[in-house]
Structure formats: structure tokens, C-alpha cells
Amino acid sequence: MANETKIPYKIYLEESEMPQAWYNVRADMKNKPAPLLNPGTLQPMTAQELGGVFCQELVEQELDDHTPYIPIPQEIRDFYKMYRPSPLVRAYCLEEKLQTPAKIYYKFEGNNTSGSHKLNSAIAQAYYAKKQGLKGVTTETGAGQWGTALSMACAYLGLDCQVYMVKVSYEQKPFRREVMRTYGASVTPSPSETTAVGRKILAEHPGTTGSLGCAISEAVEAATSQEGYRYVLGSVLNQVLLHQSVIGLETKAAMDKYGIQADIVIGCAGGGSNLGGLISPFVGEKLRGEADYRIIAVEPASCPSLTRGKFAYDFCDTGMVCPLAKMYTLGSGFIPSANHAGGLRYHGMSPVVSQLYHDGLIEATSVEQTKVFEAATYFARVEGILPAPESSHAIRVAIDEALKCKETGEEKTIVFGLTGTGYFDMVAYEKFNNGEMNDYIPTDDDLAQGFAGLPQVD
Ligand SMILES: *Cc1c(COP(=O)(O)O)cnc(C)c1O
């Protein structure tokens, strides 16, 4: 056992201690995530079919359920060194303020210009596109974190980057849009007139402010209709979770170095990529029977795919051009209430995270946004970092678990993912500070409408 007092506020690994391979948790899963299906034939997507949309090497990673470690190419490791290793912070100030016997740690992924963990996969996906000799990539973005990360990666590698940004964010969040353009990306508000699917959605829903599902459909069409382009996605897919395993591997390495044993691991869950990445090595130990952990996914009460969704095949996008994925879902037609400010608004959940949840290897809980912003504000004042609203879902539950320890006197070790900073989310903070934020929890009837649109697959 390491001496408690020797654990520094921040544990930084040496560059030489950074992971040299990503960990593919699917290799240790007894029940593999269900394959993506072709929406026309309902047969598993072949590598060839996927290769029309995604880069070849990423297709291989997507379909690889068996290789436990996949080497991180040197070029990607070099880029990672621009902002990694990221610190594992011991939240001494938070513990003190809460007067809890719990030991709280967070892995902070906000130390790069994009302000989140998304750069970990953006650079990998851009690298494989470049290696394949492509001209550029297309993608969608909601609030803009993923688009920003991808623009940074593409600028570094000299690739063209075309981003379809959900229209309401494009108009209301000019700052991230301009960061993307500063890095050389072209940004189009979605739905747009530039694609057939965008024109169709606009004709059916004039005046729509867009959704992630729509923007995905447009970005996929843009990729498949231009020579030398492929589509990339910032969450949900197996390959993205694979790249994000760098978060969990670094966390585990830092903890092992100081002899710290986690009891509870907590992450926020939108599409499931940061959570999947953070928990992968811990789940791997659980699956191999080497250790046991409580693992908690935290989602918004207004978009509760794990806690209230159905485990079923569903469309990943509104235009229904993407493959079907088996996941916990609210239905591709589900659109979270307009007053939802806290991110994490995707209707589905990563198939890997979904399968782990279905098999009882992880728990899930949902939290209301006013409680999330209370935790965010508390954390900012105590620990100094202004957290992203998404990350603050994990903060909320970490604080709640630490308060339970205060009651019971248990000295549990809690680790959570602090995925990013909230500097571009000040409109949401403003609402909270003005007391204008409220909670909206969808009724069962609201959810039934989304479920009614689920495709029939058996
Ligand atoms: C995108 C994002 C998330 C949610 O995405 P996941 O794929 O669920 O990880 C969480 N936190 C931040 C800061 C993000 O930008």
C-alpha cells in the first residue's frame, strides 16, 4: 500500500508510460455486441459495404471482436503527446469540502483546445483517412465538440473537413462554429439544401432546427457522393470506444503506479464513448474474473436511453441511411425537449456499452439537469475547473456517492471521468444562474412515440 499522503494532487504519467496499444474490450466479452445490419437486407454489414462509408482500417477495427490489443501507430502517439498524458487528479479540495471519507479521483480530458476527450478518436480517424490517401472527411456535430476536435486533427494532417452542424447550435453557438472554421473546416447548418436527405427533411418539416440524427444522414450522403471522402463519427461506434480506451488505460496505469484500488468508476453517457473508454480496462478485469468494480453510467433524465430505453435494433440517424445498430434506444425519432441544455442528447447508446449494461456488468442512473448544474457550480468553486455540462452528470453522481460514504463512514475510492470544460456552454450556465433552468422528464407516452418508430427486426 502506498502511503496516503504521498498521492499528489495530480498524477501525470511520463510520456514513456503512455499506452502503446488500445484495448479492445470486445475481445474479453463473452456476449459480443450485436453486428451492424444493412437496413435493406437486415444482414450483417460486410467489410466491403462498410468500406463505402468508412475508411478501410477503421472498418477492420469496427468488426474486430477478438484482438485484445491494437497498436497505436507512432504518428498518433506523437499527436497524443501534444495534450496527453492527461492528469488523474485527486480531488482533495472536493473531499475536504464534502467532509467525506471517500477518496475521489477524476481523469481530466479537457486540457486541449477542443476541450474534451473527443480528440482521442478524431486524430485516429483522421490518420487512417490520410493513410488511405483520401482528400477529406465529413461528419456531423451537435454542440460542436466533436466537430472542433475533428477540425484540429484534420488541420494537423492536411485533410479537408466538412462538418454538418445541427442548425439550432449553428445559430446559437457561434463560438465553436468559428473555432472549427479557424482550424479550416467548412461548417454547414443542418438540415441543409446541399444534400438530398436534407432537402427531403426540410420539405417534410419546414422550419426544423435540426437534430443529430438529421446531421448524420447529411454527412453520410456528403461522404458517399464525393470522390475521395469518407464519413467519420465521434461516438457510439466500436472503433471510437477502442480509441477512447486510452483514457481508461492511462487511468489504470496511474492508479497502479500509486497502488490505488478503485471501488466505483463513474462516467457520463451520451453515445457512450468516454464511458466505454474509461471503463474498458476495469470491465476487462471484471470479465476475466481478476477484480470487481461498481461501474455507473450517468445519463440525463430528459434523454434516458439506458434507464428507460429498449434494447433493440434501431436506426442510428433520422434519414435511415445508416446501418442498424442493436442498442438501448429511445427510437431514432426521439428528440429531447428543447429546454434540455446539458448535452448527451443522442437517442441511442453504443452497442458495447448497451451489451455490458444488458449483461449486468455496469449500472446506469439518470439525473435531472438542475441537479447537474448544481453539482457543476459546486465543483467549479471547489476544484477550480469549469466543467462541461456533460461531464457534470458524472460529477453529480460522484458527489452523491461520496455523500453516501459520509453517512456510512466507508472510505470508498471513487474515480470519475471529467470529460471536458464548459467555456462554450455559458448560455446554459446563464440560464442556471438566472434560476431559469427547469427539468423536463419525458412521460411514458412521449417515449412510446419514439418506440413506435423502431424497425421490425427479429
Ligand atoms: C461529446 C461529449 C460527451 C458525450 O459523448 P460520449 O460519446 O458519451 O462520451 C461527454 N462529455 C463531453 C465534454 C463531450 O464533449
Automatic annotation (TrEMBL):
Catalysed reaction equations from the record: (1S,2R)-1-C-(indol-3-yl)glycerol 3-phosphate + L-serine = D-glyceraldehyde 3-phosphate + L-tryptophan + H2O
Pathway info: Amino-acid biosynthesis; L-tryptophan biosynthesis; L-tryptophan from chorismate: step 5/5
InterPro entries the UniProt entry points to: Trp_synth_b-like (IPR006316), Trp_synth_beta/beta-like (IPR023026), TrpB-like_PALP (IPR001926), TrpB-like_PALP_sf (IPR036052)
Cofactor(s) this protein cannot do without: pyridoxal 5'-phosphate
Annotated Gene3D superfamilies: 3.40.50.1100
HAMAP family per record: Trp_synth_beta
Record's protein name: Tryptophan synthase beta chain
Protein's organism: Evtepia gabavorous
